[in-house]
UniProtKB/TrEMBL annotation:
Pathway: Amino-acid biosynthesis; L-methionine biosynthesis via de novo pathway; O-acetyl-L-homoserine from L-homoserine: step 1/1. Its EC number is 2.3.1.31. It is found in: Cytoplasm. The record marks E111 as: Important for acyl-CoA specificity. InterPro entries: Class_I_gatase-like (IPR029062), HST_MetA (IPR005697), MetA_family (IPR033752). It catalyses: L-homoserine + acetyl-CoA = O-acetyl-L-homoserine + CoA. This is Homoserine O-acetyltransferase. It comes from Prevotella herbatica. The active site is at C142 (acyl-thioester intermediate), H235 (proton acceptor), E237.
Length: 305
C-alpha cells in the first residue's frame, strides 16, 4: 500500500521516479481504510530534503500511511521557501488537538548550544510531553534524541573533540527485539554530530535500555517505555549523497572537517560514496511501523493514551 501525501508535495514526483508508490490525498480519499497517521516534526534546515528522505523509508510497508508535517510557531526556517511551509506544514497549536499513531522528531543544527538557550526550547519540550499521551510510538533522531533524553531523564550531552562524521558499524545488543527483525549482527549507520551521550549516564536510568552501539561512535539506539520511544543518535534516513554534500559544504570553512569515515570508495572524495546502510534503514523503519505502531495502536485513534 502507498503513502498518503499532501497534494503537490515535492517528494511525490521524486519518489515516483524511484518507482516508489505514493498517492496524493485526492486519490487516497477513494480508498475506505483507516491509514496510520504519522506526524513529522522537521527541524532540519533543508526541509524538502529531509521530507523526501523520511518519506522514502516510510513507504516500504504494505500499510497505508498518512503523513503530516509539523512546524514550530516560535521558529521561522531560513532555508525553505515560506510558500512550502505554508502549504505543507501546520503549527503544533493546530495539530495538538489530534492523536497520531506515530511521530518522528528530527535532528537540528543547534547541537553545540545549551538546551535551555535554544530559542524554541519551551515549545519543543511541550511537544515532547504532548507526544507521550497523543502518540503510540515516537522516534527521536540525532539532536532530537539527545534533547528528549535530557528533557525526560536529565541525560547530559558531551562535546566531542572532533566531529563524529561518517559511516560506523553498530551492534544490536538485543537482536531478538522486533525492531531488529531481519537485521545482521552488524549494521552501518551514518553519523554527523559534534556531541554525544554516554553509556554510563543512560545505564543509571531503569526506564532506558541501550539497544545498539558502536565501539567507535558510541551509543546509537536507546529504547524506552517498551518501544513507545526510540532515541537514535545517527541518521539512517540519510540519502547516499548527504554526507558528501556536508563535507564539501564545510571544507575550508571549518577547522574540524575531516574526510567522512568509511564513506567514499577507496576513501577518495573524488569517488562516489559506497552505500552500506540503506537496506537496514528500510528494515528499521518498516519494523517500527509494523511492530511498534500498527500492532500497538488502537483501531480508534482517540483511544491512544
Amino acid at each position: 500500500m502507498p503513502l498518503r501525501l499532501p497534494d503537490k508535495l515535492p517528494a511525490i514526483e521524486i519518489l515516483k521516479k524511484e518507482n516508489i508508490f505514493v498517492m496524493d490525498e485526492t486519490r487516497a480519499h477513494s480508498q475506505e481504510i483507516r491509514p496510520l497517521r504519522i506526524v513529522v516534526l522537521n527541524l532540519m534546515p533543508l526541509k524538502i530534503t529531509t521530507e523526501t528522505d523520511l518519506v522514502r523509508l516510510l513507504s516500504n510497508t504494505p500499510l497505508q500511511v498518512e503523513i503530516y508535517f509539523m512546524k514550530l510557531k516560535s521558529h521561522t526556517p531560513k532555508n525553505t521557501p515560506i510558500e512550502h511551509m505554508m502549504m505543507f506544514y501546520k503549527d503544533f497549536d493546530e495539530l495538538k488537538r489530534h492523536k497520531f499513531d506515530g511521530m518522528i522528531i528530527t535532528g537540528a543544527p543547534i547541537e553545540t548550544m545549551n538546551y535551555e538557550d535554544v530559542q524554541y526550547w519551551p515549545e519543543i519540550t511541550n511537544i515532547f510531553d504532548w507526544a507521550r499521551t497523543h502518540v503510540t510510538s515516537t522516534m527521536y533522531l540525532c539532536w532530537g534524541a539527545m534533547a528528549a533524553l535530557y528533557h525526560f531523564y536529565d541525560i547530559p550531552k558531551y562535546s566531542l573533540a572532533k566531529k563524529m562524521f561518517g559511516i560506523f558499524g553498530q551492534y544490536p545488543l538485543e537482536p531478538t527485539l522486533p525492531i531488529f527483525r531481519g537485521f545482521d549482527d552488524l549494521f552501518n549507520m551514518p553519523q554527523s554530530r559534534h556531541t554525544e551521550v554516554h553509556r554510563n549516564d543512560i545505564e543509571k536510568i531503569d526506564d532506558l535500555k541501550i539497544i545498539a552501539e558502536s565501539p567507535d561512535s558510541g551509543v546509537s539506539m536507546v529504547m524506552a517505555r517498551g518501544g513507545r520511544e526510540f532515541f537514535i543518535t545517527g541518521h539512517l534516513e540519510y540519502a547516499p549523497d548527504t554526507l558528501d554534500k556536508e563535507y564539501k559544504r564545510d571544507l575550508g570553512t571549518r577547522d574540524d572537517v575531516e574526510l567522512p569515515f568509511n564513506y567514499y570508495r577507496d576513501n577518495n572524495p573524488d569517488n562516489d560514496p559506497l552505500v552500506t546502510w540503506r537496506a537496514h534503514a528500510n528494515l528499521l523503519y518498516s519494523n517500527w511501523i509494523n511492530y511498534y505502531v500498527y500492532q500497538e495502536t488502537p483501531y480508534n485513534i482517540d483511544d491512544i493514551r
